[in-house]
Amino acid sequence: MEASPPARQVSVPVLAVPAPEAVAQLSFWSDVGLAQLPVREIASAEMVRDRVCGLAKDIATELGGEPLTLAVVLRGAFVFAADLARELITNKMENLLVTFFHASSYRGTKAWRAPVIQELGEMSGDGRQTVLIIDDIVDAGHTAHAMIQRLASPNRRVEYCSLLDRPEAREAPVHPRYVGFRLDGPGFVVGYGLDYDDKYRELPYLAQWMPSSTSDAS
Ligand code: IMP
Ligand code: MG
Q: How many domains is the chain partitioned into structurally?
């Protein structure tokens, strides 16, 4: 099962997240001013807010006419989903239902185990034809693929909205229709809900985690 490919050409801002070894050599590293945290800001809180507003406008324009269910993928999407849902109301998308799924994935050194998707509570809104999955990042795409398979149903339209997209890491054939930022590079992103070991979710901006730091490298 494949998410429907984007029907329109949209320009998505790109954030560079090079390998950490490369970042350490970049001149702007010292400008970040976050000496306490082993992170490098890549998108300010204001940039993220602007992008969320833009996504909400796009979604309202394209899906505004129909009753919509938001299916939030926990845990990483909790901040993004909270802001996006409120922006949708600002864009006159009323009558939303919000429901939650928990996704966990397991990566061995090489092997991939299918992500485990757990529905939290039971999805209400029988008869609603459009579900928008809200996720933090589509990386290899296995989680997105599993979510789409889980929600696919005859006569139901399933669309995908991800704050971040790293197309170069893709292994599963998924193409999120709505994307906040595209990532260029393998660097690990934290903040605005995304974590490293449950840390940094509370940061209001997006940042690249820098594993060379002594505080986190253990
Ligand atoms: P997938 O590889 O597309 O299935 O992504 C699975 C999950 O891995 C995402 O939902 C995130 O929770 C996590 N993930 C992948 N890349 C990153 C990252 O750069 N930062 C934080 N979490 C990530
Ligand atoms: Mg996730």
A: 1
Encode pLDDT of 158-197 as tens digits.
999 999 999 999 999 999 999 999 999 999 999 999 999 8
Q: Which listed ligand is nearest to 194 at the C-alpha?
A: 1
Query: Separation of 74 CA from ligand 2 center, angstroms?
Result: 6
Instruction: Give the domain CATH number at 131.
Output: 3.40.50.2020
pTM of the predicted structure, to 2 decimals: 0.88
CA–centroid distance, 114 to ligand 2, in Å, is 14
Which range marks the domain in which residue 158 is found? 27-209
Residue 205 falls inside a structural domain: yes
Which residues form the pocket of ligand 1, taking CB atoms under 6 Å from any ligand atom? 76, 105, 115, 136-144, 188-189, 194
DSSP labels, 92-154:
T--S-EEEEEEEEEEE-SS-EEEEEEEEES----TT--EEEEEEEEESSSHHHHHHHHHH--T
* Each residue's pLDDT tens digit, 86-115: 999 999 998 899 999 999 875 543 345 678
